[in-house]
Amino acid sequence: MNGETPQAAASRRMFSGKQVILFVGLAVLATAFGTAWWINQYVYATMFEPTRLGDAEQQVLNAKMAQLLQTTNATSSSVSKPSPPTTDMPLEPEPYAEKDANRHIQLTEREVNALIAKDSYMARHVAVDLADDLVSVQLVVPINQEMPIVGGKMLKLNFGLALSYANGRPVVAMRGISLGGIPLPSAWWGDIKNTNLVEEFGGSGGFWDQFSKGVKDMKIQDGQLQVTLKE
Q1: For the purposes of burial, counting CB atoms within 10 Å of the CB of 16, is it exposed (0-12), middle (13-18) or buried (19 or more)?
Q2: pTM of the predicted structure, to 2 decimals
Q3: Residue 134 pLDDT greater than 90, yes or no
Q4: CB-CB neighbours of 207 under 10 Å
Q5: What pLDDT, in 10s, does the model give residues 188-207?
Q6: 127 CB contacts (<8 Å, ≥6 apart)?
Q7: 22 falls in which pLDDT band (50, 70, 90)?
């Protein structure tokens, strides 16, 4: 033992006061840098760039919207300010008919984001991703000016919504919600994670019941939202 007493050996193994201060300082710096990175990533969030469609893509979207809205601007170069239907010629009377009616709605991810971009505010604050049977939405939410330190900044909020069709009914379920990149506990938003909202809240005559009765099929596949309506 080289003549070293147990007390001396224990004292040698203990950290000195300077070492403790150094370790505490490093821990404080690491925490500060980590907090600064988190704030920069998720609180000082930048707004999204609006989705801009090419001319060919825009014409396809215009045709789809013209079919849905029964407007006459299917070949317009933009859907942001659609032209009102012309009133120069009177409408011709015709019997109502549903034969060969198209009840299928199909939109790509870019088309969904382009429709959101019609509103300049929404275009900068909302972005949608379409994966197989999953809609993911990113929101950039302004923080109240009166909040200390982060007031007037932007906070990132993400949530996922499962969409599909099974057993003759639509499936709509929340996959999760993240605030500032941190997944929030399901208990904080109603304990409805992975719960089919159509089954849970589809009481007779309610919104989800009526919605379910009108949908024949619904899915997201290959970046496209597809909905088929019942007669």
Answers
A1: exposed
A2: 0.63
A3: yes
A4: 12
A5: 888 889 999 888 887 777 88
A6: 48, 113, 116, 137, 138
A7: low
Residue among 58, 69, 57, 56 at smallest CA distance from 105: 69
Q: Is 66 exposed, middle or buried (0-12, 13-18, 19+ CB in 10 A)?
A: middle
pLDDT per residue as tens digits for the range 67-119: 666 533 433 444 444 444 445 667 778 777 766 667 788 888 988 898 888 88
Radius of gyration of the chain from its Cα atoms, rounded to whole angstroms: 28
Q: Backbone dihedral region of 72: left (phi > 0), alpha (psi from -120 to 50 degrees) or beta?
A: alpha
Token readout for 29 is 């710096």
Q: Which residues is 161 bridged to in the sheet?
A: 135, 174
The two tokens of residue 153 are 């900044």
The model's confidence at residue 164, banded by pLDDT at 50, 70 and 90, is very high
Distance CA 25, CA 70 (A): 67
Closest CA to 12 of 2, 27, 26: 2
| Whole-number Å distance between alpha carbons of 171 and 161 | 10
* Residue from 193, 195, 198 nearest 168 by CA: 198
Q: Angle at CA 21, nearest 5°, toward 17 and 26?
A: 150
Q: Output the six-digit token pair for 114.
A: 């382009």
Highest mean pLDDT among 29-38, 50-59, 184-193: 184-193
